[in-house]
Hints:
Elements: H1 2-5, H2 35-61, H3 69-138
Amino acid sequence: VGYELTQSLDLDKPSFASPDSMPVAYSDLTLPASHRDTIVNAMVYIHHSIHQVNARLEKQQGIVTYLTPRHYLDFVAQFVKLFHEKREDLEDQQRHLNVGLDKLRDTVDKVRDLRASLAQKKGQLEQKDAEANEKLQRM
C-alpha cells in the first residue's frame, strides 16, 4: 500500500546505496533495497513499532490506544504532503538563487561594458590633455 501511495513521488535515485543494517519490516522487500523500497520499509517499520509501543503501554499503564490501517494511510498521506511541500520550498529557493545569479551575470556584463567605455574615454581624455598641453606650450 505504501509503495502504491508513493508512486507520485520522485523517490527513485539510481545512486542510492541501502544501509547494511536495515530492519526488514515487510516480506516483499528485496535486498539490496531501492530508495523507494527503503522509505516504504521505514514507514511500515514505524507503523509496526507504534503497535509494539501501544501493546507495552497497555500492559504497563492499562491505556488502550487503537492503531488502525487508516492511521497508516494518514501517515503515508502526510509523508507525501510533506514531501511535496519540501520539494516546492527547494524549487522556490533554487528559483530565487537562479534569479540572483542572473542578476550577478548582468552586473558582470555591465561592469565589463563600463570598463571598456572607461578605457575608451580615458584614451580620449589623454589625447585631449596632450592637445591642451601642446596649445599651452605654443602660448
